[in-house]
Amino acid sequence: MKAASFDYVRPKTLGEAAAALSANKFAKLLAGGQSLGPMLNLRLIRPALLVDISRIEELQQIEETATAWRIGAGVTHAQLEDRMLRGAEFLSVVAGDIAYRSIRNRGTIGGSLAHADPAGDWPLALSALDARVIVRGSDGQLCSIAADRFVQAAFLTDLQPGEIIVGVEVAKRSADVRCGYFKFCRKAGDFPEVSAAVLWDPKAMFARVFIGALATAAQPIPGIAALLAKNDTMACSDGALAAAISAAVPHLDTVDLQMRTGALRRALLQVQ
Questions:
Q1: Most exposed residue of 10, 129, 178, 250, measured as fewest CB within 10 angstroms of its CB?
Q2: For the whole model, what pTM was predicted?
Q3: What would the pLDDT profile of 224-244 be if each residue is shown by its tens digit?
């Protein structure tokens, strides 16, 4: 199939993009197009106007501050794969395992968040990293939303009409912090069947543990995070993992629970 007809604009600034988006309630933003393109061709969406923001320079920047990295929404997966950000090296690990290089060359971190596929890598990884999503409101003001609250459900985000993701802020972590990420795919490059992400700071006795590839947004597993924060050896036991996952995500069938238990165990083993 081919996409239904639509109008197309390529603004040069974020202000122009916001104006185009506000002027047409049936407008859709285009960044890398790796998810939007197939959806257009299958006519799952039929926007009246496509606003191409892929050439807006202010969305392509990676900026460093004393405590964090500010990554523009238009930064591609490949750019993050190829650049090791000091104190946030985990981003390169996650980016390098997304789909195929040809997709990583075009797909963007902001587009992945806006699409909010529950099996996507960035919603899960950024939740574990306690990242913030920077959003430009329809009034031009910027606000910051926690990544683990930004994606509310499958393909549903906290974005309001006229709002645009402009970047992601990821805190720099000390050399003591360890991160783990594991996903199981039926074949290389596919979306995962199950996935898990872990952040552990043994010195600060702090941990964040999430599982993804659910029917909804990535979910925290506080029971395991509490054990890991205390460096409790029970954190990797099958019984503790299964119980904590069941408490956080009820009604999983036996096979699904076993797969998620295995994925989380693999992620935890990467940090211990």
A1: 250
A2: 0.95
A3: 999 999 998 788 899 999 999
